Automatic annotation (TrEMBL), chain A:
Biological processes per GO annotation: fatty acid biosynthetic process
One Gene Ontology term of the molecular function aspect: fatty acid synthase activity
GO cellular component: fatty acid synthase complex
Protein name in the entry: Dehydratase
Superkingdom of origin: Bacteria
TrEMBL record, chain B:
Matches recorded under PANTHER family: HYDROXYACYL-THIOESTER DEHYDRATASE TYPE 2, MITOCHONDRIAL, HYDROXYACYL-THIOESTER DEHYDRATASE TYPE 2, MITOCHONDRIAL-RELATED
Organism placement in taxonomy: Bacteria, Bacillati, Actinomycetota, Actinomycetes, Kitasatosporales
Gene3D superfamilies: Hotdog Thioesterase
InterPro entries to which the protein is assigned, alphabetical: FAS1-like_DH_region, HadA-like, HotDog_dom_sf, UPF0336/Enoyl-CoA_hydratase
Record's protein name: UPF0336 protein D7318_18555
Stretches assigned to the FAS1-like dehydratase domain: 8-137
Species name: Streptomyces radicis
GO terms, biological process: fatty acid biosynthetic process
Xref: Pfam families: FAS1_DH_region
Family membership noted in the UniProt record: Belongs to the UPF0336 family.
Superkingdom of the source species: Bacteria
Gene Ontology MF term list: (3R)-hydroxyacyl-[acyl-carrier-protein] dehydratase activity
Length: 144, 150
């Protein structure tokens, strides 16, 4: 484990580089295949509407994976993540066009947890179409 | 219908091993658009101190969910699976999943309860490698939405 960010160099309130992740229908089909989650609400508009959704929605786990990238890109080594959790609060609705949807992710060091283990808690926000799509999105990260 | 509360605390036998392949990790990393070299280049992974390529943090969900699925689909539990949504997800890692791992999942139903008419079930999946070393634990909250009054 070799995080490139040093524990000594971060403070509560340190902001991680934010990122925006595009998601189209093609993204969802690809993610369905890679993850093995073929629930039709993620690719079949007719089915999604029949179960009361406004349109096809992204896999919650896809959104969780994208939000993690803000943490792993910052930390340098993905193995620096020792805990990671989210609540799925709103779906990411993905229209059938070239642009699809955007997932906008920000992260902030919310607390320095343990000086010896060099762990910090990062609080994440993820928004799409102006709505918060993840709640309680937090990672515990072990820094250098 | 209320769920059978006696399922809380129940543990299930470990799943047969899932062998993690380099190309499956690559496929997953590409699907989430993540070009971190530790996911695809064994040399880059070694420079970070890993014996082989590692998987993105959420990769293991595909494995733990399959195990949880078998548990929550037990007809005796009484869960209406067509109404289930994923509520929360959390992972606690001892180390990253990596290529060559042969992983087993031991699932435990941590709690079963009703909240505002919804049925909420918490499943924990403890993931170990073939030497018995703990790799990661996945905590999955599933919510079965109440039926609207018609």
């Amino acid at each position: 484990m070799t995080a490139t960010v040093a524990y000594a160099d971060v403070e509560t309130g340190t902001e991680l580089p934010a990122a925006t992740f595009p998601v189209t229908r093609e993204t969802l089909v690809r993610y369905a295949g890679a993850s093995g989650d073929f629930n039709p609400i993620h690719w079949n508009e007719k089915f999604a509407r029949e179960v009361g959704l406004p349109d096809v929605i992204a896999h919650g786990m896809f959104t969780m994976a994208e939000a993690a990238r803000v943490v792993t890109d910052w930390a340098g080594d993905p193995a620096a993540v020792v805990e990671y959790g989210v609540r799925f609060t709103k779906p990411v609705v993905v229209p059938n066009d070239e642009t699809g949807a955007l997932i906008e992710v920000t992260g902030t060091v919310a607390a320095k947890l343990d000086d010896e283990a060099r762990t910090v808690r990062v609080d994440l926000t993820a928004r799409s179409a102006g709505q918060k799509v993840l709640g309680m999105a937090r990672a515990v990260v072990r820094l250098a | 219908m209320a769920l059978d509360q006696s399922f809380a605390g129940r543990s299930y036998p470990p799943t047969p091993p899932y062998e993690v392949g380099r190309e499956k990790i690559r496929e997953f990393a590409e699907a989430i658009g993540d070009s971190h070299p530790a996911y695809t280049d064994p040399e880059a992974a070694k420079q970070l101190g890993h014996p082989d390529v590692i998987a993105p943090p959420t990769f293991v969900f595909s494995i733990t969910y399959r195990a949880a699925h078998q548990v929550v689909r037990d007809p005796a539990l009484g869960l209406d699976y067509t109404r289930v949504v994923h509520g929360d997800q959390k992972f606690a890692y001892s180390r990253p999943v990596r290529a060559g791992d042969r992983l087993t999942v031991t699932s435990t139903i941590e709690s079963v309860r009703s909240m505002a008419g919804n049925e909420v079930i918490d499943v924990r999946g403890d993931v170990h490698d073939e030497t018995g070393e703990h790799v990661v634990t996945a905590f999955t909250k599933l919510v079965s939405r109440k039926k609207e009054a018609s």
